[in-house]
Recover the amino acids of this structure.
């Protein structure tokens, strides 16, 4: 069937599609009105978020894909604007019909309908996981690091690394609002290793979020630094720099975010101490190899349990990170311990996420310091994080 409609007819038709009991499967906006438009395609589809029917708009840019979740009203307004300002064609798939809208002139949009070609999928946001970097879309650093092939398909044996990178970016997305808004960001990744996650961080902030950034990846290993520097230079990732050095000796005066992922044993403590001394607003740390306290722990009550090495090992891990968390709270940070990667990928899967609030609460910080001291004394340990000296809780 072929018919034409005025702009209000278009709005009316869209309004029906976004109704609560709507049959909409997805609508795809294409054929840009002007070449300068940054995105080449937008797809809107219904999703279920926290039990609510919402709509997700997916914007396809040259090198990235971004998502925006919208209420029905906002999705309707967005759809109308996309036709009026950005795109000349819309393909709508519903459970009952497919509709093609040709709108070179929005006021003379032409509708063509034909029987439905797509079945209604179950409405679940994460049924097929929406990754920040999606599988199937070429991403330069992932291709270069061998995680994707040239066509953008994730290579099967690297899928867990791909998931870990995306999980990491979800966490970065979560803390992004805590970063300063109006300046070039400075970030240090201590113990960056082969830097999959450092490259991902740069890609997310610079390419997806369009922020000016200076990121330094620091590592002890010369070959790793040479490897990463070459890739950054080949990809023209200006602002991403790799330096050889020891975390404990690193002297700088400032960072907006400090990252330390799987830096061994007390290397994590030095990274945290640096971050706090710079009042870094965001710290992301995944500790590993927490050995320092193993030989120190003494506790008469727990001694019968601690004769089992594996239990003492686990307790050492939790105690070390618990004390680190409390020390960060004592320095004024809001601290959460979250899961980073699934256990089948690595057992080292706890991330310390610390964000410095605009106005840290001195009484909360003092209480955390008391808790820290009580726990430290209960097990008679002296952890390296203790070097995090007198506390400043102002920002
Ligand atoms: C297990 S790798 C983790 C690499 C990367 N951050 C990741 O999570 O994929 C740990 C890295 O930390 C580096 N490292 C350990 N102690 C360090 C120190 N004191 N200073 C600088 N780098 C350190 C090691 O050389 C190694 O490359």
């Amino acid at each position: 069937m072929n018919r034409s409609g005025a702009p209000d007819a278009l709005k009316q038709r869209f309004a029906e599609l976004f109704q609560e009991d709507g049959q909409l499967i997805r609508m795809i906006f294409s054929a840009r009105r002007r070449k300068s438009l940054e995105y080449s395609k937008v797809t809107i589809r219904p999703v279920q978020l926290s039990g609510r029917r919402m709509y997700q708009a997916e914007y396809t840019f040259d090198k990235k894909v971004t998502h925006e979740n919208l209420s029905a009203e906002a999705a309707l307004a967005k759809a109308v604007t996309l036709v009026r300002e950005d795109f000349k064609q819309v393909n709508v798939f519903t459970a009952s019909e497919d509709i093609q809208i040709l709108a070179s002139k929005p006021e003379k949009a032409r509708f063509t309908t034909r029987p439905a070609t797509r079945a209604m999928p179950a409405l679940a946001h994460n049924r097929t996981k929406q990754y920040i970097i999606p599988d199937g879309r070429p991403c330069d650093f992932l291709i270069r690091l061998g995680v994707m092939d040239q066509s953008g398909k994730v290579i099967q044996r690297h899928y867990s690394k791909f998931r870990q990178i995306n999980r990491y970016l979800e966490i970065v997305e979560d803390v992004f609002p805590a970063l300063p808004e109006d300046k070039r960001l400075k970030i240090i990744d201590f113990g960056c290793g082969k830097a999959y996650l450092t490259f991902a961080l740069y890609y997310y902030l610079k390419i997806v979020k369009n922020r000016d950034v200076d990121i330094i990846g620091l590592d002890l290993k010369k070959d790793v630094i040479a490897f990463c520097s070459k890739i950054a230079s080949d990809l023209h990732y200006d602002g991403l720099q790799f330096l050889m050095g020891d975390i404990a000796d690193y002297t700088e005066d400032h960072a907006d975010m400090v990252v330390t992922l799987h830096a061994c044993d007390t290397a994590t403590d030095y990274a945290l101490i640096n971050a706090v001394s710079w009042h870094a607003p965001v710290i992301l740390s995944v500790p590993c190899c927490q050995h320092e306290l193993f030989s120190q722990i003494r506790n008469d009550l727990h001694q019968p349990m601690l004769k089992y090495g594996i239990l003492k090992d686990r307790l050492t891990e939790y105690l070390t990170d618990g004390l680190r968390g409390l020390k960060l709270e004592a320095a004024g940070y809001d601290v959460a311990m979250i899961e980073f990667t699934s256990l089948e990928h690595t057992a080292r899967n706890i991330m310390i996420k610390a964000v410095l609030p605009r106005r840290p609460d001195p009484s909360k910080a003092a209480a955390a310091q008391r808790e820290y001291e009580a726990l430290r004394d209960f097990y008679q340990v002296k952890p390296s994080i203790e070097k995090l000296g007198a506390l400043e809780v102002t920002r």
Q: What stands out?
A: The chain has ten helices and 15 strands. Residues 1-5 have pLDDT under 50 and may be disordered. Residues 191-193, 196-197, 218-221, 224, 246-248, 261-264, 267 surround S-adenosylmethionine (CB under 6 Å). Residues 171-387 form a domain with the Rossmann fold fold (CATH 3.40.50.150).
